[in-house]
Write the structure tokens for this entry.
Amino acid sequence: MRTVDLIQRKRDGEELAPEEIEFLVEGYTNGDIPDYQMSSFLMAVYFSGMSDREVSRLTECMLRSGDTVDLSDIPGVKVDKHSTGGVGDKTSFIVAPLAAAAGVVVPMMSGRALGHTGGTLDKLESIPGFRTDLSAEEFHKQLSELGLCFIGQTEHLAPADRKLYALRDVTATVESIPLISSSIMSKKLAEGVDALVLDVKVGSGAFMKKQVEARRLAQTMVGIGRRMDKKVQALITDMNQPLGYAVGNALEIMEASQTLQNAGPTDLTKLSIELAARMIYLGKKAASLDDARRLAEKHLVEGSGYRKFKQVVTAQGGNAQALDKFELLPNATGMREITSPRGGYVSSIDAEDIGVASNMIGAGRDKKEDSIDPAVGIILEVKTGEKVDAGSVLCRLYYTKEDRVDEAADMVEDAFSLSPQKPEERELILEVVG
Amino acid sequence: MRTVDLIQRKRDGEELAPEEIEFLVEGYTNGDIPDYQMSSFLMAVYFSGMSDREVSRLTECMLRSGDTVDLSDIPGVKVDKHSTGGVGDKTSFIVAPLAAAAGVVVPMMSGRALGHTGGTLDKLESIPGFRTDLSAEEFHKQLSELGLCFIGQTEHLAPADRKLYALRDVTATVESIPLISSSIMSKKLAEGVDALVLDVKVGSGAFMKKQVEARRLAQTMVGIGRRMDKKVQALITDMNQPLGYAVGNALEIMEASQTLQNAGPTDLTKLSIELAARMIYLGKKAASLDDARRLAEKHLVEGSGYRKFKQVVTAQGGNAQALDKFELLPNATGMREITSPRGGYVSSIDAEDIGVASNMIGAGRDKKEDSIDPAVGIILEVKTGEKVDAGSVLCRLYYTKEDRVDEAADMVEDAFSLSPQKPEERELILEVVG
């Protein structure tokens, strides 16, 4: 088997055999296949795509390239949730406790912020004392006892994906549906879950700008799950404005805490209930999806989800009091109000711009090595469809350093579009796949 | 400027600015841009193509990456001919002397055999004593005195192309019209020519299998010439059977010698006259193309082209007597006749198969390091359209080692297709571009 022939066949739109995909992934991981051949293969995949069979084998090879977590000794169905990344997306802190409160085992392995969207681990670490670097034993023990644990993905999980991703990042081959799908699924399936709920974001603040692309991504991931005997469901949800009002690490923890106390924004609450319900349903803790929705709502209203979250925070070394007393969380020192230049209806809020502006003032990182400022971020005062007057506050920037506040303020102001007519209401949950 | 952004823009079908192409070629040549980024860029070019402006700048950058030959002190228009490579293509040894006999200055820089087509330098070196490794001074002197010199391309000519070609070869990015065009043209234009006649082969024995692709390649190369103020004309010619009857190094020299004595095959003679005429016309040695054709024919019929070739062979250390006395050329020791299994008309002769079979018995090389056997090859006895009986000789294999003769014989036999009806005659010269 010659690598150049496999590149050529993929370039010419042919389907590669499972053992050919294996040859490529193994050869690349162990260094037999050089970067320059893999990068031209990846670009050929970008243009020619991959069949379901190919993408499943690619996922399997990457999954098998490293450790896999064995959770079979913990009774019950293990269910995780994964979002493709949105601005203000703090659903993990709401849905995981709700599902766990309903008896689902939720091994939640997450990543860090990179690009314009935040990272689950970074947000959690804004809670004083919270540890995400648990040992495998600690993780296992907590999952058995509390049914929920938040942890980072180790380097030993799908190292082939790690190596491929680093190459894709510098060769303009990130934006490929089979490559994105296999990257996500190889890591998620290596975590030892039985089922997975996916939140595929679409819109200005998401990686996928069009619903047709988001659908293809969702279908591909659901297909990979099916071929590997895992139950996978995907929601395609709108990311044409930030989710909820808060963007930034500690700010999002505050909003998640409020939402778990049934005092959160409507959109965030609605999406969280739906995601939690699907985790509960796939986790076999309800006979129907409607029952699962009722169960999720009950755990929200009765506060059992919130209590579960506090237990988990405490177990992972965090100060759970900070979830009630926000002054115990990192707080910004400066605030800037962005006001509306004129009256009208808010017709859209560019979520990517809000995310980028929030990163500018320190909430995110451009490079892996950058440190983040947990206190800073943006809180929207209005959302799409609301009426504002000239001079009304659109949002507030919270910062600790003046450095790039002016630049961020300009960007945020431009993110809001106003129209004289009330815009049509947009659906939050657009589609279900799987 | 970031390389990854340029890859992405090319991937997305955008046109890159001249300075961006320059950044890529220079960065790659001096090692700032790694192979893995360039190979993904090349694959993006394979799919997205290049505009005329891009391909011209790419050619110019590769040309300027190394030495360029200055022939301005030699009076007259300098004209070269280049063929994209065919089986049995020995026109260089005929057209160059004919054009030189008519007063055109012909600095002919050529390559070696690689793949299923032969190399001009290898063929010339089958003449005992013939040297192609002349110094720049020797080259210059001979060109001034005789108006014709055959020489190999040095490593200093277009080194960027050399580095890029080596990468394309292992990343399945050879078959791209802008990349092929710029590779050919950068080397040819570095030779200091004023005009260039291209012979773009199309058919089973050529790189381009379809006329529409050959036309695009021809148009691209003619366009590059135009933008760089060089006169370029291209003929698109049929390569659905070998040109002439002889395939193999010394065998092709013999046939070229016969053709220069006006005793060669009809197809080879016809194409040689047309190519020589265009060189004479672009070289301003005739007022019209028709005058140029008459001049080329005159030099063929009167033998002045043949005398010019002998002068050049002598000047480059070769034994010119060998062009009359073929026993002085390397001769094979074994011969195998391939006979027709049944009667009928020869409907096609797969030129690629003939080329590959000829290489099998030693006429070509698979790898750069391989040595070739100048004596061996194949001589066709019939060509497309001719009638054969069962048992008639289709061709003869000439070899010096038995090793792969059986395998080659099978391949050659399969190369001939027979049909009960006389096939329609195929045009040799299909199109003129430029």
Notes: The two ends of chain B are 36 Å apart (CA to CA). The first helix of chain B runs from residue 3 to 11. Chain B touches chain A through 24 residues (CB under 8 Å). The mean pLDDT of chain B is 94.
